[in-house]
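Practice problem: DUF4907 domain-containing protein
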Amino acid sequence: MIINTKKQLFWNKIQKNLLFFILVLLLTACTRKESFKMETFKTKSGWGYSIASNDRVLIKQSLIPVINETKSFFSESDALKVGTLVVDKLNKDLSPTVTKNDLILLKIKL
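Answer key — structure tokens:
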């Protein structure tokens, strides 16, 4: 009986390469997405926040969103709360919009 060892070697190499390729795909799929960096800053009338990714500013919010007035955040902690909420939404691949209900739940002074 003659066994074709070349064919077996060929399939073994394919299996090893396929296993390696799947492993690489799994590792890249499980890596953490881009991280967002949030900072507060002082404005003329209060506080604001900015969100950056890879040293590029994505959002710079110096006014309280959703309200009819043009006011900055009263305190740095208010700006931090809203900025943290926006970063959480971005990390969950949600829209970074802030609603009036969000401001009420975070107890932001309007």
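Discussion: The longest helix spans residues 5-30. Students who identified this feature from the tokens alone can consider the problem solved.
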